[in-house]
Specification:
This protein starts with a helix and ends with a strand. The radius of gyration is 26 Å and the shape is globular. The chain has 24 helices and four strands. It is mainly alpha-helical and about 550 residues long.
């Protein structure tokens, strides 16, 4: 070997590997942080919440080869059920798989956010601070009370959209804006109310993106963005069309949620905004960041007005800052359309605000770090105090909750997941091939016991709204029950709330007295079917257990 060749090549090879090694270290450290911030929700220490059980059952059916809306019906688009199915395929069916899926999604989002903040604002310390604070807020227990929420999964496509959008603004290429549209569609499929960044993207470019706005290809760029979104939606539509449920999927994913939420209780639009700003968790959780967010808003305006930009990154940074400033109020409008965000159990709606808030926070800190008329030491003190305050506010409560739970568990989180008593009862009193119908809103029973439902309508929310669609679904359910009667029915309506009436007529009267709703769909076909085919076998507190087909 020629020594001169070795001396010339080896340093270059080492230099080419160094960035990858550095990114591997960053990713590893952020993964450890993602695990640490999610420890408060490990399945061995916490009970599963309702939404997680719904998505868990849907994912379990899909992982076994089922088809969305054919074998499992939910008033959601199939994104979250697909994520659960992938997690079960990778890690096995169970709550631990859901926990790892949640960790992986927020970790990937934190890595993307680290890259974005470093590239946009030029400070590694700011990228670290923003990524870590993001992880703390992503599992802030006053906002999310469990893993496996749609809003938390949707954080990844939101952050990726901002990252791809910034890269497009810095270096306009069709592929980058195509990916922004693709991320918007993925976010939509996971959670319909998380796509504010898409219209805000176009608005920000029109206001502060001269390199794109004035480009001769601007309409082609817009077309590439739309094409990115349509590519994902087209694949989904094709999947549903092949299985003969395209119309059913459209109704379930876009129409049924609005009908259900309107029936639950429609709230005037302006009242939802007032509730979000005054009565929800938003002021308590995000309000203390205000004194850092305000400089971010001001910086967005100032950077947008400074023309011409010295370098492409300056214009990209200005447009990115304006983009998130526009996204945030649009998020406020969309996240609480039902007016239930201030009610216990619905705080997770506001996790959607986190990406825009984090980038605004970073813009504010970067602006404070670059105030030229303040001495360097003064800027350093202000920025250090701001980062310390944001980190303290984001971390104090998760730290207390996590350490308390770990101390109670003697710092051992490796045990089996906590299962509900009804899940244990069902698993002990049915066989693996038996089907079990949950009448109410507790499908975690089917998921935790790994018992399939005899019908695609595995919980009752799709059947109670008084309209023609519900009556058609009730008729479909009866046909499915006739074809394959369940071994057991678990009626959890008395403790599931005031929306689903009990199967037993005497219990229905009691339920009405307690405030149960009378304005429900005509469920008499189901009542008649249960009366003809099933008998009450057990009463466990407020739960009635039926045996069928004996």
């Amino acid at each position: 070997m020629n020594p001169s060749v070795s001396r010339d090549v080896t340093p270059a090879v080492r230099r080419s590997w160094w960035p990858w090694l550095w990114w591997a270290v960053i990713a590893l450290l952020l993964f450890a942080a993602a695990v640490a911030t999610t420890l408060q929700f490990v399945p061995s220490l916490t009970y599963q919440q309702r939404d997680s059980g719904v998505y868990g059952y849907g994912g379990m059916v899909l992982a076994r080869g089922g088809v969305m809306y054919v074998d499992v019906w939910d008033n959601k688009l199939p994104g979250v059920h697909t994520i659960n199915a992938l997690a079960f395929t990778a890690f096995g069916v169970g709550r631990w798989a859901q926990w790892w899926a949640d960790v992986i999604f927020v970790w990937a989002a934190s890595v993307a956010l680290y890259w974005l903040i470093r590239e946009a604002f030029g400070f590694r310390w700011l990228a670290w601070a923003t990524a870590l604070i993001f992880l703390l807020f992503a599992h802030y227990d006053a906002i999310v009370s469990d893993v496996n929420y749609t809003e938390v999964y949707a954080l990844l496509p939101q952050v990726l959209a901002f990252a791809f959008g910034f890269q497009f603004l810095r270096q306009p290429r069709y592929r980058w804006t195509f990916l922004v549209g693709l991320c918007a569609a993925v976010a939509l499929i996971i959670k319909q109310s998380t796509v504010s960044f898409a219209p805000a993207y176009v608005m920000a470019i029109l206001l502060a993106g001269p390199s794109v706005r004035g480009a001769t290809q601007r309409w082609r760029y817009l077309g590439a963005t739309i094409l990115g979104g349509l590519s994902v939606l087209g694949v989904l539509a094709l999947y549903l069309l092949v299985h003969g449920v395209l119309v059913t999927g459209i109704v379930a994913g876009f129409i049924a949620p609005g009908e259900f939420h309107h029936w639950v209780g429609a709230v005037p639009f302006l009242d939802t905004i007032e509730q979000t700003l005054m009565d929800s968790k938003v002021p308590d959780v995000y309000g203390p960041l205000g004194w850092v967010l305000i400089p971010g808003v001001l910086a967005a305006g100032w950077w947008s007005l400074r023309r011409p930009y010295v370098a492409p990154v300056d214009g990209a940074r200005a447009t990115l800052a304006l983009w998130v400033v526009i996204t945030f109020p649009l998020d406020l409008v969309l996240v609480n359309p039902t007016g239930r965000g201030a009610s216990p159990g619905y705080e997770h709606y506001y996790a959607t605000l986190i990406p825009a808030l984090m980038i605004m926070m970073a813009a504010g800190l970067a602006a404070l770090a670059r105030v030229r008329w303040v001495p360097v030491w003064g800027r350093a003190l202000v920025v250090l105090a701001a980062v310390a305050w944001c980190g303290y506010h984001a971390g104090e409560r998760p730290w207390d909750v996590t350490t308390t739970q770990l101390e109670d568990a003697d710092w051992d989180v490796t045990g089996p997941p906590i299962l509900g008593d009804l899940s244990i009862f069902v698993a002990a009193n049915t066989g693996p091939d038996d089907t079990v119908l949950n009448w109410g809103a507790s499908p975690y029973i089917n998921f935790q016991s790994e018992r399939l439902s005899p019908t695609r309508f595995f919980y009752a929310y799709g059947l109670v709204v008084p309209n023609e669609d519900s009556q058609e679904r009730i008729a479909d359910m009866i046909a499915e029950l006739d074809a394959a009667p369940p071994a057991m029915i678990v009626d959890t309506t008395l403790y599931d709330g005031n929306r689903v009436p009990p199967l037993d007529p005497e219990q229905r009267v009691e339920w009405w007295v307690r405030g149960g709703r009378r304005d429900v769909a005509d469920l008499s076909p189901l009542y008649d079917w249960v009366a003809a085919n099933c008998t009450v076998r057990d009463r466990i507190n407020l739960v009635t257990v039926y045996r069928c087909g004996e």
